[in-house]
Amino acid sequence: MPQGKQSSGGGLINAYLLAYNVASFFGWFMILFTTVSCLINNNGDYTKVHSLVWPWLQVVQTTAIMEVIHSLVGFVRAPVTTTAMQVASRLFLVWGVNYMFPAIGTHVSFSTMMIAWSIAECVRYSYYATNLQGSVPGFLNWARYNLFYVLYPMGVGSELTMVYQSLPYAQAWNPLYFYFLIGTSLVYLPGFPVLFLHMVSQRRKYMKSIKEKKSQ
């Protein structure tokens, strides 16, 4: 989810954004650490991940609503509509799928989704935090513009699998919600290639700017 460049509104805004990004990084790092530790300590048994990660996930992902507000009030230069859609899609997976049907949390796709989300978010929030301080380490730039090749398909595939796993429960609970989940999943079909190609385009621009700087 893009958060955009820092606002020119002053030191207080930048200090707040720095605190927000650091706190968000810590939250996602705990999700990543908990997920990986659980898998290692339980010899790859992914059925235990959900119960351990869920308390963190509820708070950290729901707090991302603040990013829509940041964009709306001009704290960051990110499109409100795009930011809102991306936050909403995550909240849909958390509250509309996993909260509604917690039994699906024992499926392996929950663990792969947590790994993809948490790595991507740790990179993103640490990038924004260091950018606010005026210097982004080279490895963060590399991670931001390269890891999506793996993390984005992994995340989307896990999300669709989560929705698929929830369908029998949704059908038993409410047929309308069952069709709602199917309709929402269909949005991924045209959306995935568009967003993926957009990120590829952003990477090309970044790599081009790097080459131009080296040639100067």
Question: What does this protein structure show overall?
Answer:
The structure is a single chain. The protein is an all-alpha fold. The protein has one domain. It is built from eight helices and no strands. Helix 5 (108-132) packs across helix 7 and helix 7 (148-173) runs antiparallel to helix 8 (175-215). The radius of gyration is 18 Å and the shape is globular.
- Please summarize the sheet with the most strands: none
- Kindly provide the radius of gyration, computed on alpha-carbon positions and rounded to a whole number of angstroms: 18 Å
Number of domains: 1
Mean pLDDT: 90
Number of strands: 0
Helical/strand content category: mainly alpha
Ranges with pLDDT <50 over ≥5 residues?
1-8
Distance between the termini: 32 Å
- The helix fraction, in percent, is over 70%
The H/E string reads HHHHHHHH
**Shape, principal axes of CA atoms:** globular
